[in-house]
Amino acid sequence: xxxxxxxxxxxxxxxxxxxxxxxxxxxxxxxxxxxxxxxxxxxxxxxxxxxxxxxxxxxxxxxxxxxxxxxxxxxxxxxxxxxxxxxxxxxxxxxxxxxxxxxxxxxxxxxxxxxxxxxxxxxxxxxxxxxxxxxxxxxxxxxxxxxxxxxxxxxxxxxxxxxxxxxxxxxxxxxxxxxxxxxxxxxxxxxxxxxxxxxxxxxxxxxxxxxxxxxxxxxxxxxxxxxxxxxxxxxxxxxxxxxxxxxxxxxxxxxxxxxxxxxxxxxxxxxxxxxxxxxxxxxxxxxxxxxxxxxxxxxxxxxxxxxxxxxxxxxxxxxxxxxxxxxxxxxxxxxxxxxx
Length: 340
Hints:
This protein is α/β, with parallel strands linked by helices. It contains 14 helices and 13 strands.
């Protein structure tokens, strides 16, 4: 089976399992799990932040950040395809009572000028703008990577206008593998960062929310309210520590395989367009009258699983369980799917 539906489908390696089985644990809600504490401190230090908070998912870390940064009735500026808005079940509204200002932008990315143009004036008829969010890499943009200068410019706009600046870094290590920016330089740009361990890094569960001590103190209370307090979570946190130690450098292998798939797809007659492939995500449109669901169904018959992203688009995501041998098998399936 070739499964490119997401990089969340990976299984822990034998070495990661060994680290999990040998973890020292305690009750984390009481602050007594040493492995969770070690993961929080390790990740915070990596990005130059004062503190971290371990949570079950990136959705939870994003939602907690919004709850802490903004008050009910205030507004978040973000791209209309951002995970925080598009894929989190209306959480900004239901969890925190927030309004949203949804921006357009190339492959899901926004600019400082976009933000400037949409900060609301001090007008009682309009929600108060309080937070800006960016996603890097941008999932719906085909794993697109922000230019570091653009992120810095957005941050400057936020500082000058008293806005909180949050990074959904679900695949931030994929982005850094492309830009070469250090984790510390990345961390310095933002008030808060969500870092996912269960995507490209291959841990089974978990994301970290990073920020200053006061922000994380408030975030810990919100995590409790959201039901995210876990007990002997060190068994899971140990997988995260292992992933940070051993699975970051290998992300470039996923990028190489994704680029190979993207180049090959662009040569197929039944493929209309392929978004630029920068990281481990490949999004392409199938040519009419074909539909994405039809292609996904056809390749599934050959043991190749993928996701129809919309009526015409399909997404592949490469990951640590997708080998070069599987890559060649995938290429063969795609080249022959409509030959008979």
